[in-house]
Amino acid sequence: MNPTIKDVAKMANVSIATVSLVVHNHKRISQETKDKVLSAIEQLNYHPSHSARGLVRRNSGNVGFILTDDHFLRTEPFYTHIFIGSEFEAHENELYVLLTTINSDYNINNKLPRFILERNVDGLIIAGKVPSPFIDQLSKYSFPIIFVDYLPNTNKYSGVMIDNVKGGELATEHLIRCGNNVIAFIGGDIEHPSIRDRFNGYKNSIEKAGLNVNNEIIDYTEDYPGRPNGYNAAERLFSRSKNITAIFACNDAMAVGAMQYMKDNGIRIPYDCSIIGFDDVVSDNAIDPALSTIRVPKMEMGTEAMKLMAQMIKNNSKECRRVLLPVDLIVRDSTKRI
Amino acid sequence: MNPTIKDVAKMANVSIATVSLVVHNHKRISQETKDKVLSAIEQLNYHPSHSARGLVRRNSGNVGFILTDDHFLRTEPFYTHIFIGSEFEAHENELYVLLTTINSDYNINNKLPRFILERNVDGLIIAGKVPSPFIDQLSKYSFPIIFVDYLPNTNKYSGVMIDNVKGGELATEHLIRCGNNVIAFIGGDIEHPSIRDRFNGYKNSIEKAGLNVNNEIIDYTEDYPGRPNGYNAAERLFSRSKNITAIFACNDAMAVGAMQYMKDNGIRIPYDCSIIGFDDVVSDNAIDPALSTIRVPKMEMGTEAMKLMAQMIKNNSKECRRVLLPVDLIVRDSTKRI
DNA sequence: AGCAATTAGTTAAACGTTTAACTTATAATT
DNA sequence: AATTATAAGTTAAACGTTTAACTAATTGCT
Q: Which residue is nearest nucleotide D13, judged by alpha carbon to C1' distance?
């Protein structure tokens, strides 16, 4: 049986209230008593019962972490890094993380995750784009919600985002500095705020450099921005225009797909065509040449989200707060000065 | 405020004990009363408090899920699938899953995950190989532990495994049936039980076919069995022997690495050399040709582990139980009849 | 010296369940 | 009719904390 507060109290010859006060290091307790109690706690290896605490505090000590299954299961461990960041920061705040996935085609008839129905979380972190019917369902609950890497259009939610526009600019500027002047863009669903922002960054830089934004070398579809999509996008692109010298892909997965197309069709990277991705999730040598990209601070997004969450829980605040994290240009071998 | 059992009792005009009995669908309650209570529960959207329940039942309702960070963050979402399986099955058993990673170089001075120290889990699922100092630390705790995809050498632990020997045999037999008679093996750390079993399956089939096991075309190292390792292994292999017509890689990641080496060196797959992997984790078209492999029922491993866990928790049993899941041969385009 | 203020601790109620032990009403058996 | 058995519910204690309200001892102030 685990030691309880009573065991500690008995051992230290004080009341259980005193033990509790020491645990919360309340000022009312003298140093002498504190030492006595602390030593008993140490000896017994006492840890307060999560359940008992949750019962009287009327909270759970848990934070739900939700993402869609296709995001979680994709090849590039983007969201996995975000989760790890959250989990890490949760330790610092004495919180536990309950991870669950929802269907990417969640609809109004689907059940909400069990920890929401049973109100066994004090807050929710939602990573990546989730179906809007899911978000709608959440409105009846009053716990804080923090979005990471995706923010619904309504401006009532807190979120941790990266500077996608800036990232798009950095990538495009880099390609321009390398001497390219026919720079294509490939993206998935342009309705996705992140992709749209990256595209806007692309446009900004193209225009700033005095080049013209040419729809013929801009390709996006509604499909999931993964490798197959990148492959197909590159195929369409090169069938429309032969003189493309560089591609900015909205993420690394699409970039890798596009690279595969180029390899299959004798287009040498970066000699015939440079390519840059976004996210910095492929670092292994099976991708050749190494992909230049925009680094996204994935773990940091997770930690920032959990920090925000811990604050909101502690202050019982519902105010909407936003964090914007910077991105960096990472130059590897897939982009080359002409 | 969330509705409590009292609210339900008041609404249904019964005692709280009756509500509790209905929730547990105890036979002592008449159908009539049951209906009344159930309808009140429905109307109020009542869910029992996890904390209150945990307090009296002296359990947490949580299961810890542990793996090393490099396993979790690897490119192929192998363990992610296992986790999802566990999480799914946890729902069926009214359990929550607390996921956390440990360092792959965990040592005796590292702290155990918080949920273990605070005894906030009723059991532990450990996925993949973990450092043995970690396992040693666990011995002071008495909750059930289930290993998945890795079982320490001592035979005191419960586990869910796949038939690695059989998988090795299936893969090798397939290559033999395709007409190959110089079949190489590449693997990572041969001390890893799964890799050793796969290798043993390979040997079984080679011998059974009357071929000889040739150390020159067998390559393993102590390194992590990822893509870079596969690349290097292929390099060593082809520098030692030119007439290899097929490779069995101990997993898909190493196979992909080896494929990259072959592509870089003009070895056409499968015309010059066939290759088969293990795990079935790469299904995207950026890997070309599509990789033949041994399918591992990843989600099922997760669900089976959680089923076992739920039983052990329910029966308060500590007996050692094992589940062995079968694997399948998946023929794609990287292996070809000569 | 007499009173107020401060310090250091204790008491006891509350949080929302579960469940053994009890009660009461009805049915079955002698 | 008296006794026993069964059915259907209720009572109350317990689980391990937190914290407001209280007490008692000491110190400070006039």
A: B56
Burial of B254 (0-12, 13-18, 19+ CB in 10 A): buried
Q: Which residues contact A122 (CB under 8 A, 6 or more apart)?
A: A59, A60, A61, A62, A63, A95, A143, A144, A313
- If one compares B193 and B285, the residue with the highest pLDDT of the two is B193
Per-residue pLDDT band for A80 (boundaries 50, 70, 90) equals very high
Q: Inspect the interface and report whether the beta carbons of A75 and B73 lie closer than 8 Å.
A: no
Sign of torsion over alpha carbons B5, B9, B15, B17: negative
**Mean pLDDT value across residues A260-275:** 94
pLDDT of the residue at B84: 97
Facing residue for A284 by CB, picked from B48, B49, B228: B228
Asked if the C-beta of A279 comes within 8 angstroms of chain B's C-beta atoms, the answer is: no
Residue B88 reports pLDDT greater than 90: yes
Where residue A119 falls (left for φ over 0; alpha for ψ -120 to 50; beta otherwise) is: left
pLDDT the model gives residue A58: 94
Nearest nucleotide by C1' position to the B17 CA atom: D10
Q: How confident is the model at residue A76 (pLDDT cuts 50, 70, 90)?
A: confident
User: Which nt is closest to the CA of B29, judged by C1'?
Assistant: D8
Q: Distance between CA B228 and CA B226 in Å, rounded?
A: 6
**B170 with B294: CB under 8 angstroms?**
yes
Distance from CA of A312 to the nearest CA of B (A): 18
Give chain A's radius of gyration (CA, Å).
25
Structural domains in chain B? 5-48 (1.10.260.40), 62-162+298-325 (3.40.50.2300), 164-296 (3.40.50.2300)
Tell me the per-residue pLDDT of A281-323, one tens digit each, with 9 for 90 and over.
976 666 789 999 999 999 999 999 999 999 999 988 888 999 9
B53: closest chain A residue by CA? A51
CA distances from A203 to A150, B5, B208, B262 (A): 21, 59, 63, 40
Per residue in A100-143, pLDDT (tens digit) is 999 999 999 999 999 998 889 999 999 999 999 999 999 988 89
Please check whether residue B99 touches A, CB under 8 A: yes
Q: State the pLDDT confidence band at B50, using cuts at 50, 70 and 90.
A: very high
Q: What is the pLDDT of residue B283?
A: 67
Residue B187 pLDDT greater than 80, yes or no: yes
Enumerate residues 6+ apart whose C-beta is below 8 A from B233. Answer: B186, B187, B219, B220, B221, B254, B257, B258
φ, ψ for residue B5, nearest 5 deg: -60, -30
What is the structure's pLDDT at A283?
67
What contacts B35, CB < 8 A, 6 or more positions away? none
Q: Which pLDDT score, from 0 to 100, does residue A44 have?
A: 96
Residues with Cβ < 8 Å from A113, sequence gap 6 or more?
A64, A66, A100, A102
- Check the CA dihedral A297-A300-A305-A311 and report its sign: negative
From the DSSP assignment, how many helices (H) and strands (E) are in chain B?
13, 12
Q: Do B264 and A288 touch (CB under 8 A)?
A: yes
Instruction: Give the burial string for B213-227 (b: 16+ CB within 10 Å, else e).
Output: eeeebbbbeeebbbb
Nucleotides of D under 7 A from a protein CB: 7-12, 14-20
Among candidates B114, B119, B260 on the partner chain, residue whose Cβ is nearest the Cβ of A286: B260
Q: Which positions in chain A touch B83 (Cβ < 8 Å)?
A: 99
Tokens found for residue A3 = 């030691």
Find residues 195-234 of chain B whose CB sits inside 8 Å of chain A: 226-228, 231
Q: Taking the CB of residue B142, how many other CB atoms lie within 10 A of it?
A: 9
